[in-house]
Amino acid sequence: MTKTVLGIIGGSGVYDISGLEHARWERVSSPWGEPSDSLLFGTLEGVDMVFLPRHGRGHVHSPTSINYRANIDALKRAGCTDIISVSACGSLREDLPPGHFVLADQFIDRTYARDKSFFGRGFVAHVSMAHPVCPRLASVLNEAARLENIPCRLGGTYLAMEGPQFSTLAESRLYRSWGCDVIGMTAIPEAKLAREAEMPYALVAMVTDYDCWHPDHDHVTVEQVIRILFGNADSARALIKRVAPMLGPNRTPSPLGIERTLDTALITAPDKRDPELFKKLDAVAGRVLRKHS
């Protein structure tokens, strides 16, 4: 039976968890460049965990400058089997006020300045993103939130914008008209790259404020936002502490078969594949490449 190694992508409020045993920071090299930071390895309630500060400790990377490919590749090299992403977001709905969590299961990608695939010229692959979130992970997260009395919605659409500037009022109103629930800057391309790396992915979108569509948005003070951020961080830690033992050390496969995504995704003929790109894919696609090497 496969052992669970749970990867957590988030900020300092997420990885500063009491009870994390054998904690150690390690640098993991990637052929895709430098990850955002070193990885924090540890064990929580018998489950192996790997934490990655998305923006780096001290928040040194903007949403656009994050090396998403290196981050996901590093987590794969670290042995992660599943990824839970924890990220702040704005609300596009009146009934999702600050302090609520949304387990988004759909995405609309409005980013344009990021590398979104491990594959490309010389080695082409196409993976399905119809259902970008693993329902097993989302379901367990939802139950963990209920047990921790964290206001949480299972399901929702996350609008991924480029940033770092926030939306204009016209954009915010447009995204609401599309039926989007929350808006953020980091879940894409994380979700796409996790799928290419055959790692089930789930997103915990933590609402910090209403986007600028809300008539009272301009009245929000910095102190109020900071208070929400700290409250969300406390809830995120509680959620992760609760969900680790619920997932357990013995892993259950994704019902979507995400672990075998690449079986039908590789298009380029073996004799036409770029050898340099082939080498860089040793962690992400090693399971299928070894069959044909």
Strand content: 15-25%
The structural domain count equals 1
Supply the number of helical segments.
8
Q: What is the fold named in CATH at topology level?
A: Rossmann fold
- Largest sheet, described in full? 11 strands, mixed
Radius of gyration: 19 Å
Mean pLDDT reading: 95
N-to-C order of helices and strands: EHEEEHEEEHEEHEHEHHH
Name of the CATH first level: Alpha Beta
| Shape verdict | globular
Range of helix content: 25-40%
Poorly predicted residue ranges: none
Structure description:
The structure is a single chain. The chain is built from 8 helices and 11 strands. The protein has 293 residues and is an alpha/beta fold. The chain has a single domain (5-292), classed as Nucleoside phosphorylase domain (Rossmann fold). Strands 1, 2, 3, 4, 5, 6, 7, 8, 9, 10 and 11 form an 11-stranded mixed β-sheet that branches.
